[in-house]
């Protein structure tokens, strides 16, 4: 969802609502969007902000057909948007490499809080997209975030396979380890 319209299966943009509240309190926020679809609404909302570092890792050439590498923000937000459009067929190695790069850049940003758009439609058994992330990849993502940052929250995004509970549990176990 964007400022003025519901879109992308979202009536409200939960990560953006929570993040804006934190920004209003004077906090800097790193949003890591691991949903297989690009978070065009979240990107749009914070595209001109230097208080939010937004990073999306999503399948390239998939709905909503946005999230190209050269979309990096504008105005005060120039350089505060990162997109990792991953080719269909990408698996754990590609996903976790992108996570590692995003974490290293986010460390330089020094966020007060990390928010995760935890979408699990990149799961290897999810037929909506062509990504191939294992349960272990979601665990590793959570674990790597926890090794780098202390204040983390997540909101559930996409995921259409019946194993979404397992995906969510794997990610949370990684954060709790």
From TrEMBL:
Alphabetical GO biological process terms: epigenetic regulation of gene expression
Domain named Histone deacetylase: residues: 1-173
Protein name from the UniProt record: Histone deacetylase domain-containing protein
Family annotation (InterPro entries): HDACs, His_deacetylse_dom, His_deacetylse_dom_sf, Ureohydrolase_dom_sf
One Pfam short name: Hist_deacetyl
Organism listed in the record: marine sediment metagenome
MF annotations from Gene Ontology: histone deacetylase activity
PANTHER family to which the protein is assigned, alphabetical: HISTONE DEACETYLASE HDAC1, HISTONE DEACETYLASE HDAC1-RELATED
